[in-house]
Amino acid sequence: MPDVRLASPRGKWILLTTVLGSGMALLDSTVVNVALPRIGRDLDTDLAALQWTVNAYMVTLAGLILLGGALGDRFGRRRIFVLGVLWFAAASLLCGLAPNAGVLIAARALQGIGGALLTPGSLALIQASFHPDDRGRAVGLWSGLGGVGAAVGPFVGGWLVDGPGWRWVFLLNVPLALLCAPVAVRHVPESSDERAYGRFDVLGAVLGAAALGLLTYALIEARTASWTVAAGAVAGVAAAVAFVVVERRRPDPMMPPDIFASRQFTAVNLVTLCVYAAFGGFFFLAALQFQVVVGWSALAAGTALLPTTVLMLLLSARSGDLGERIGPRLQLSVGPLLCAAGMLLMLRVGPGASYTADVLPALLVLGLGMVTLVAPLTATVLASVDTARAGLASGINNAAARAAGLVAVAALPLLTGMGEEAYRSPEAFDAAFGPAMLICAGVLVAGSLVAVTTVRRPAPDCRRPQCRTHGSVAVPPLEGERDVPDREGA
Fold first, then answer.
1. pLDDT, tens digit, 9 for 90 and up, residues 124-149
2. PANTHER family, alphabetically (predicted)?
């Protein structure tokens, strides 16, 4: 039985190392967008390379995050967490030293592998280490401190880009990892799950990541209309079909198809795909719009996005409480519409835009929409499956959100006619930004329609989320098993 108390020195060390580990991955998902214009100029690269700088990380992270959790359950959560932290740091060092865009993109893909190993492990370590009486508070502190990190991330990233340079956005992870890994080895008890058995679904994970990568390649490079793009698209579809076939036939699949037999689970994941596609596209393009078109510094652009995260930190728990009282349908229907209104307000953001008159109103409406929908979305995902599969359901939902975001980053420049050099031209980028916001708003309206027609009130005795405070705007919170056995440590 886990017996570490939160108030003990060991408990504080465990909380520190898990916050540092998950914070590294969370920071990179929020600050890299702010650095993109400077990366493009310094490495003299085109828009496609900037898209890949974001998406190479997301492809491997989304494709492998379920496998990362399974590896921790089998071989030891601390062991896999520390491996992920060190892997992430080594890849970050390579990102910071990258001499060209090709090396940077490859290093970002390696970073995603490290993120897939450490992200699910950080929460699992808390669940497996703390006494049951302290576990809820520990999870709350973990998610809250992670949210604070998400809020500070764009500010720190902008300061680094304008000061020491964009490379320090990545190099900062190295000292964090050098602090995190030894603390984990010394103070965090090892744990595993004796219920974890069977073969790992490595083939499924590889096929899933390959499908995402090939389809992303086809979307990013589609403007060239070459035979390699067509071949990539065909291969991506083939990999996706093979993934479905493998998951249906394996006795222990990474993503069991029967979990989608729950209409509620399927419906909420469709809503997730819509809203997080819009969010992914918005935060990718908005950071560029603020710098390329409005003319702000990286620090100003990063700071400008703070209101959405602050609103999430302050109000997400209250939104979850409201969803428990009235059911999720209303919030999942209204929330995307508020977000769509916020993106329509972004149409006012152009050359010479005022932050208080043009940008802030849009971000406040967008943030209120996020607050309205994120907490009930997570709760409905967990409530739509058996309690024993809640961790799996959350992992699938988290991966779906990441996949939706990377597809949006790949597709929006293509759909809006954004040229390879658009980020160097304020006029060209501004001309494409407006249509992109209209597309994002339309996708959000589609998500609202899915919610209003398919989402139903969960049973009163269903599983409730543990992460009540949420600050990430990139993905829904990742939940784990409520009672995680500790077989080797504590």
1. 888 888 888 887 788 878 877 777 77
2. EXPORT PROTEIN (PTHR42718:SF42), MAJOR FACILITATOR SUPERFAMILY MULTIDRUG TRANSPORTER MFSC (PTHR42718)
List phi, psi (to 5°) of 104: -60, -45
Grouping H, G, I as helix, E, B as strand and the rest as coil, residue 472 is coil
The tokens of 76 are what?
Answer: 């030891």
CA distance 390 to 41: 44
Mean pLDDT value across residues 212-237 = 91
DSSP secondary structure code for residue 293 in this structure: I
Angle between helix 390-415 and helix 426-454 axes, rounded to 10 deg: 140
User: How many CB atoms are located within 10 Å of the residue 198 CB?
Assistant: 11
Take residue 230 and report the two structure tokens written for it: 């067509």
| Residue, of 400 and 150, whose pLDDT is higher | 400
DSSP three-state, residue 191 = coil
What SS3 class is residue 4? strand
Cα–Cα distance measured from residue 401 to residue 119, given in angstroms and rounded to the nearest whole number: 15
Q: Which domain holds residue 227?
A: 202-253
How many domains does the structure of the chain reveal? 3
Reported as a single tens digit per residue, the pLDDT across 372-415 is 998 888 888 888 888 777 778 888 988 999 999 999 999 999 99
Question: Does one domain contain both 392 and 274?
Answer: yes
Quote the tokens at residue 288: 């560029």
